[in-house]
Amino acid sequence: MPAAIAVVIVLGGACSSPPGVVATDAWSPPVPTGSPAGAVFMEISNGLDSPVTLTGATSDDCGAVELHETTIDEAGVTVMQPMIGGLTLTPGQSWSLAAGGEHLMCLEPAPAGDTMRLTLTIRGAEDIQVEAVIEDR
Prior knowledge:
By secondary structure, the protein is mainly beta. Helices cover about 10% and strands about 50% of the residues. Strands 1, 2, 3, 4, 5, 6, 7, 8, 9 and 10 form a 10-stranded mixed beta sheet that branches. The relative contact order is 0.28. The model is unreliable at about 1-15 (pLDDT under 50).
C-alpha cells in the first residue's frame, strides 16, 4: 500500500503546472475627477524557471498606461519618469510596485469606479489580467 501512495503523490506532482507570473494586492488610490494621472501598485512574482520582464500594461480605464520609476535628478529633486526596458524578475523573484519606486501610471484615467482592470504585458510569459481595487491606504 505505501508504494501505491507514493506513486499517486509523484504523479500528482508531475501533473501540476508552474505558478507562472502572478500579480497580487493590486490597488490604486482614488484620483480626483479631471486629474491627468493616477498610480497603480501591486506585488508581482515570477514563479517560472526563467526571467521575465514587465514591460507595461494596457487598460480600458486609462488613456494609456506607463511603467514608471522614481529617481533623483541632478538637482536632487525626486522625479517620476518612464522606465526604459521594463522591470526584469529573475526566477522566484517578487517585486513591489509601490509609491516612491516603480509603479504603473494610468494616464487620462476614466471616472473612478470601485476597480480598475489592467492587462500586464510580460516579455517571457503570457500577459496577465489584474483587477486593482480603488482605495485609500
